[in-house]
Structure to design on (435 residues):
């Protein structure tokens, strides 16, 4: 599984942090540039005088249209609030009539405060309804441009922030869209298509989990196909193996049926042969049922048993049978003081199948060798025998050995066999249990 160096939450937090730093740097840079431009072009005396003159003209027009007198202070306040960024001062007869900087408490100075020399020098004549007055307008004319520049800078920085965040998120969304498309490919049956695993976040973990699921499903399908192929092959082989003795059985029974009572000797021979073929059919059917009753998908119920006790008992029983059939057996090696995990019922069937093969195919004139091999991890039983020579090749479908191999696998062991010239070698391997 992928190690989560960066979760989606951490990646998003880092993305926001980077976007904030970049957009902040852009904002400060733009602000510095705009401030320098505004200070350089909009803070000169020439610009100041030009703007003041323009506002004097607008105020003069406002007074003329509304026929205001120098005492219409409410109308003056409304005009100042509408224009913004300016300070309006009005004099008449060298006496202050209105100052937009004054509060209500300061209005007592109206009609009393004398005009200053600065106001005298920077004021302009305006005609009111009650006569000519002097008007001075001071303004923070560049402030509106500072505000406009600040708004544009903020919008630009915000736009850059959003672009960076959206671009970073788009990478994850694009990968998520890739995963979605690849899942649809798998849904369509293309199970050999590999998932794209990129990164180490939760999306990568999802992709890797789907990939592991895909592989597990393919392995399952492969196992099913192998089992089906094995079953088809076995059925083909068994149909041939069963047909041969069945044909002979029918033939012997027909011969026996045609023989008269005076030919009892021939009839007995046919019946004996038919009985032998019937036993052969029974053996085939027993092996077939035993093989298919072994479930590959589930392990057998295992128990830890002492090798020295269990194997000794089983080997002793099998050797006794071989001795009865006039076989010579040589045992070498020692049974170790270890334990193995086995299913006692299936272990007995394994030794029965091995014994059956020895009785059927081993040369009774040659010695059968049994060797015990063990170390810290494994315990093995090596069996070797000479294959007997017969004019008729013994019929074999290998079902007994398949059953042995499957039962050993269910007990987490291994079964190996091979033929070299006239020698046949069998190995049963068990893993020592930890007790």
């Amino acid at each position: 599984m992928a190690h989560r160096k960066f979760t989606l939450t951490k990646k998003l937090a880092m993305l926001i942090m980077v976007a904030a730093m970049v957009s902040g740097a852009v904002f400060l840079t733009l602000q510095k540039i705009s401030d320098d431009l505004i200070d350089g072009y909009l803070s000169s005396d020439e610009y100041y005088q030009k703007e003041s003159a323009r506002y004097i003209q607008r105020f003069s027009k406002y007074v003329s249209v509304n026929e205001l007198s120098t005492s219409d202070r409410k109308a003056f306040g409304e005009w100042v609030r509408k224009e913004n960024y300016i300070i309006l001062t009005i004099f008449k007869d060298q006496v202050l009539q209105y100052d937009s900087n004054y509060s209500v408490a300061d209005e007592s100075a109206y009609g009393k405060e004398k005009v200053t020399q600065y106001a005298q020098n920077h004021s302009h004549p305006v005609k009111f309804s009650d006569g000519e007055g002097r008007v001075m307008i001071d303004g923070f004319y560049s402030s509106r441009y500072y505000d406009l520049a600040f708004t544009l800078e903020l919008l630009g920085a915000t736009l850059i922030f959003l672009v960076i965040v959206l671009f970073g998120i788009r990478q994850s969304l694009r990968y998520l869209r890739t995963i979605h498309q690849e899942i649809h490919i798998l849904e369509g049956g293309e199970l050999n298509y590999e998932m794209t695993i990129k990164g180490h976040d939760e999306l990568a973990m999802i992709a890797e989990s789907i990939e592991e699921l895909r592989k597990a499903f393919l392995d399952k399908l492969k196992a099913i196909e192998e089992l089906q192929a094995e079953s088809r092959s076995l059925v083909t082989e068994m149909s041939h193996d069963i047909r041969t003795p069945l044909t002979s059985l029918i033939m012997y029974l027909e011969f026996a049926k045609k023989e008269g009572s005076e030919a009892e000797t021939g009839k007995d021979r046919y019946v004996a042969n038919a009985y032998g073929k019937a036993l052969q059919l029974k053996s085939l059917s027993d092996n077939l049922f035993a093989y298919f009753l072994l479930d590959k998908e589930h392990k057998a119920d295992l128990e830890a048993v002492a090798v020295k006790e269990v194997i000794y008992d089983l080997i002793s029983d099998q050797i006794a049978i071989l001795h009865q059939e006039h076989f010579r057996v040589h045992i070498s090696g020692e049974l170790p003081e270890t334990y193995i995990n086995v299913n006692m019922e299936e272990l007995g069937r394994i030794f029965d199948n091995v014994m059956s093969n020895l009785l059927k195919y081993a040369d009774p004139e040659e010695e059968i060798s049994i060797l015990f091999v063990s170390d810290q991890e494994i315990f093995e039983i090596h069996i070797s025998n000479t294959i007997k020579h017969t004019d008729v090749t013994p019929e074999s479908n290998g079902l007994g050995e398949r059953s042995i191999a499957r039962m050993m696998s269910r007990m987490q062991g291994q079964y190996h066999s091979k033929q070299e010239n006239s020698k046949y070698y069998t190995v049963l391997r068990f893993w020592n249990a930890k007790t």
